[in-house]
Design brief:
mainly alpha, 2 domains, 3-stranded antiparallel β-sheet
């Protein structure tokens, strides 16, 4: 082996050690940087014929488990969706009241107890005033629930607009980074891949995607449901519009709410996962169902009182919606937000005893009723008995059951259904409605906790596979320092040999 070759081998060893030391220091410095993965420098022994010729050090490489990264991205989507669902449904749960009291069923029970007390002394103005207060509380409870549902649904619509913008920004960034990785113009593709993974992670929170990495640094993004998302750094591929949501608003044929498009094609029904998918589910299915259930409760309440001769609850125009009509397109839509006390009864609480109107007997419905005439008996209890026995009961008259309260054909387009069986009494419906709607929030909290637990496990595993172990890096740097010293000794020996050779020549 010539001295020149030996010198070249020693110099390549020094350069390799130096680059590895720099990379090790960079790993240690970024050990706590979110999204950073451990980088290593591949080395290849060079030969000249049968003789060694030094080392070649390649570009930094990452050690990343693609399957584990995909699971992390899916988990991010699930966690973001669960957190969002919990947040929006919490406001509705608060409107329903607490376990200690204040629910629809509690308000209905208080109203019934007020009528029972009034039945004992129908002319007592104090007891009449108490019933009016209880009825007002009932109406306000329904108003509050409707308002909370409407606010959450508007937040969902606004959230769709925000998440589309966030997804477009992430897609543009991913597209730009992919072009740089493919061109390798920056000379550090591993760092660019870290940045791209971070952008994919952000995109996954908005819209669940699976990243299919291809040779040459290319990338294919497939959303849940099979949608392939094009990568274009110069334009937004997703689009939607802002809108104001009313109780009767809906997305779909004949609806007024905007969808989400991909290159001009509506993909709303195909979007699932992440915050965007959850916002769409809340806006178009969960919250319209909640609204319809509250509206049906309000309409049935008002109707069953009016059917017995007491129009206690009415719409703003003094009418009472007919709950036997199909929900879509009826006056029931949004009624929970409009229900209030009949001004005539508010002005004359004695109507609680006397009745507001006559009732004609109908087959399969209530029996006939004639209101207490002016100057009639102060102890008139006919109407109070009808309210207590039938309005609060399961029958419109003795042996004539009320129709089941609707639990299907709900929503502005009639496509939704409640997750509970159809009850006959107001109390049963109120209890099931509250349990179902507050239960959805509890389920969201449970889903969030499970997603958080899984995230911790996946992140720990990812850190072990792809993260930086500072202790291991420091140990490796000590070994590299020893290698550097060995190469330096080789260079020192070669320098002595060169000096001896030169001295011999002289």
């Amino acid at each position: 082996m010539s001295l020149d070759l030996a010198l070249s081998i020693a110099r390549s060893g020094l350069l390799a050690v130096q680059r590895n030391l720099v990379q090790g220091a960079q790993n240690v410095a970024n050990a706590e940087t979110p999204g950073y993965t451990r980088k290593t420098l591949p080395q290849q022994s060079l030969t000249a014929g049968d003789s060694p010729a030094g080392l070649r050090t390649g570009e930094a490489q990452r050690k990343v488990d693609a399957a584990l990264t995909a699971r992390l991205d899916a988990n991010r989507a699930a966690l973001a969706a669960a957190e969002l669902r919990e947040r929006l449904l919490s406001g509705i749960e608060q409107a329903h009241g607490t376990a200690e009291g204040g629910s629809l069923a509690d308000a209905l029970s208080d109203l019934r107890n007020g009528f029972i007390a009034l039945r004992e002394d129908p002319a007592d103005s104090g007891k009449q005033a108490q019933v009016m207060d209880d009825a007002r509380t009932m109406a306000q409870r329904l108003n509050g629930i409707s308002e909370a549902i409407g606010a959450a649904r508007q937040q969902a619509q606004d959230g769709i607009v925000q998440e589309v913008a966030a997804a477009n920004a992430a897609l543009r960034e991913i597209a730009s980074l992919t072009l740089r990785i493919k061109s390798a113009a920056d000379g550090n593709t591993a760092a660019l891949e870290d940045q791209r993974d971070a952008a994919i992670a952000r995109l996954s929170e908005s819209l669940e995607v699976r990243a299919v990495r291809q040779p040459g640094g290319d990338l294919l993004l497939v959303a849940r449901g099979g949608l392939v998302l094009p990568l274009d750094p110069d334009r937004d591929v997703l689009a939607t519009q802002e809108a104001t949501v009313a109780p009767g608003s809906f997305y779909g044929a004949g609806g007024t709410l905007p969808g989400v498009t991909l290159n001009g094609i509506d993909i709303t029904a195909q979007i699932a996962g992440g915050r965007l998918g959850e916002y769409i589910t809340l806006r178009d299915r969960t919250l319209p169902r909640f609204q319809a259930e509250a509206d049906v409760a309000a309409a049935t309440l008002a109707h069953r009182f009016a059917a017995e001769g007491l129009a206690l609850f009415t719409d703003t125009d003094g009418t009472v919606p007919d709950p036997s009509l199909p929900y879509p397109g009826s006056a029931q839509i949004g009624f929970a937000g409009r229900i209030g006390l009949n001004p005539a009864v508010e002005g004359n609480p004695a109507l609680l005893r006397d009745g507001t109107h006559a009732v004609a007997a109908t087959p399969g419905g209530p029996t006939a009723f004639t209101p207490n005439p002016p100057g009639g008996p102060e102890g008139f209890t006919v109407l109070l008995d009808r309210v207590l026995d039938f309005s609060f009961g399961d029958s419109a008259a003795a042996g004539v059951p009320w129709p089941s309260i609707p639990t299907s054909g709900l929503g502005p387009d009639g496509s939704l259904a409640s997750p509970f069986a159809a009850p006959r009494t107001l109390a049963d419906y109120a209890a099931r409605l509250t349990a179902a709607q507050t239960g959805d929030r509890a389920a969201a909290t449970e889903a969030k906790q499970q997603a958080e637990d899984l995230r911790s496990l996946l992140e720990d595993r990812f850190a072990r596979v792809s993260g930086v172990d500072v202790d291991a890096e420091m140990a490796a740097m000590i070994s590299l320092q020893n290698a550097y010293a060995a190469n330096a000794r080789v260079l020192g020996t070669l320098q002595s040999m060169w000096d001896s050779l030169l001295a011999a020549v002289k």
